[in-house]
């Protein structure tokens, strides 16, 4: 039997503060759950870019801040496997993310 935990996250740092959901609380919850694997909303190509070049922003600048600020370092520190699970077609979203950069 496998136990799966789902931890929701708001990507907006102002909302994190407003709703008392700081990254320190997320870290505490992850440590308490003690996962073997974390699946995150990161495109596989962006994860590869991070592994190869240390670029935390992703291929289109789409990677949310909590990943390089908390999730990636925590996975490295605790030897937790990270699996990227955010799939999107690059040609569909390219213009959207370039406008956000």
Summarize the structure.
Helix content is 50%, strand content 8%. The chain is mainly alpha-helical and 101 residues long. It has a domain at 37-100.
Radius of gyration: 14 Å
Query: For the terminal residues, how far apart are their CA atoms?
Result: 43 Å
The helix-and-strand class reads mainly alpha
Mean pLDDT, all residues: 87
In order across it, which strands form the biggest sheet?
1-2
Q: What is this structure's SSE topology?
A:
Elements: H1 13-18, H2 23-33, E1 37-40, H3 44-53, H4 66-78, E2 81-84, H5 90-100
Parallel strand pairs: 1-2
Report on the architecture of this protein.
With 101 residues, this protein is mainly alpha-helical. Helix content is 50%, strand content 8%. It has a two-stranded parallel ribbon. The longest helix has 13 residues.
Q: Which key phrases capture this entry?
A:
two-stranded parallel sheet; mainly alpha; globular; 101 residues; 50% helix
């Amino acid at each position: 039997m496998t136990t799966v935990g789902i931890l929701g996250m708001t990507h907006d740092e102002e909302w994190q503060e407003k709703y008392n959901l700081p990254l320190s609380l997320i870290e505490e919850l992850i440590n308490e759950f003690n996962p073997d694997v974390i699946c995150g909303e990161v495109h596989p190509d962006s994860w590869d870019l991070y592994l190869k070049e240390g670029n935390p922003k992703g291929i289109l600048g789409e990677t949310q801040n909590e990943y390089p600020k908390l999730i990636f370092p925590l996975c490295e520190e605790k030897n937790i496997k990270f699996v990227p699970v955010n799939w999107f077609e690059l040609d569909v979203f390219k213009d959207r993310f370039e406008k956000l950069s």
